[in-house]
Amino acid sequence: xxRVAVVTGGTRGIGEAISKALKAAGYSVAATYAGNxxxxxxxxxxxxxxxxxxxxxxxxxxxxGIAAIEKEVGPVDILVNNAGITxxxxxxxxxxxxxxxxxxxxxxxxFNVTRPVINGMRDRGFGRIVVISSINGQKGQAGQTNYxxxxxxxxxxxxxxxxxxxxxxxxxNAIAPGYIATEMVKAVPQDVLDKHIIPHIAVGRLGEPEExxxxxxxxxxxxxxxxxxxxxxxxxxxxxx
Length: 241
Ligand code: NDP
Known about the structure:
Blueprint: E1 4-7, H1 13-24, E2 28-33, H2 37-47, E3 51-53, H3 59-72, E4 78-81, H4 96-124, E5 127-132, H5 135-139, H6 145-165, E6 170-177, H7 183-186, H8 190-197, H9 209-220, E7 231-234
Parallel strand pairs: 1-2, 1-4, 2-3, 4-5, 5-6, 6-7
Helix pairs in contact: 1-9, 3-4, 4-6
NADPH dihydro-nicotinamide-adenine-dinucleotide phosphate is lined by residues 8-9, 11-15, 32-36, 39, 55-57, 82-85, 105, 132, 134, 177, 179-180, 182-185.
Pfam families: adh_short_C2 (PF13561)
InterPro entries: Acetoacetyl-CoA_reductase (IPR011283), KR_dom (IPR057326), NAD(P)-bd_dom_sf (IPR036291), Sc_DH/Rdtase_CS (IPR020904), SDR (IPR050259), SDR_fam (IPR002347)
Keywords: Oxidoreductase
């Protein structure tokens, strides 16, 4: 039986590439999303991967969503915590709602989605948890106190849970992407990309979602069983953490 992989935010952007790559590698994949039904339905029609709509910032919705996935697809062996948002603003102008939305979606989601799957992984003696953090959680970014805090928190979560879970055959790792060509980055004005971002990327270009997806497939594999608690930096040499 194929192992079951869940990718949160798995219908668009980096998550879409991860879902497709895991399917191509032989996993039974379930992709989750928040509310963009059009994108999710298109993704489902194109890939045949089942989609599940629930808000990763809502614990009860996640518990119900994971239960639905386990009923339809099977017990979760691989969890990719990928869903994330930005709500950028300089801190002295940031509103509480912007802070809370980003922390709830990017950081509290780790509790909400991982907690319902961790005991099954422990009982079965196998699991792979990959968290998509960010370069801006490693180095900080002006205008992103909320996002940088959430993404640095992701890395702390990974290090602690890795230590708790290693004896049960579960690895827990983070990937910290640099700037990847998705809608999140396309929202950045082109002149800002050209003048202020791409010149700092040693390889001279944005990354592609597939370049993150290939690393997830590796971390999910049996070959990566000795890698846990680590943060894999994939940023074209922009920041050497
Ligand atoms: P996109 O905006 O392209 O896609 C985001 C995905 O997450 C969508 O499927 C979206 O669902 C889902 N999502 C958003 N909020 C929620 C929520 N509350 N509950 C459930 N699902 C949700 O993002 P990217 O692909 O660019 O980013 C993916 C991850 O990679 C994020 O964690 C991001 O922080 C991180 N990252 C991205 C970088 C980049 O350069 N793009 C760089 C570094 C890190 P829906 O379609 O319904 O809205």
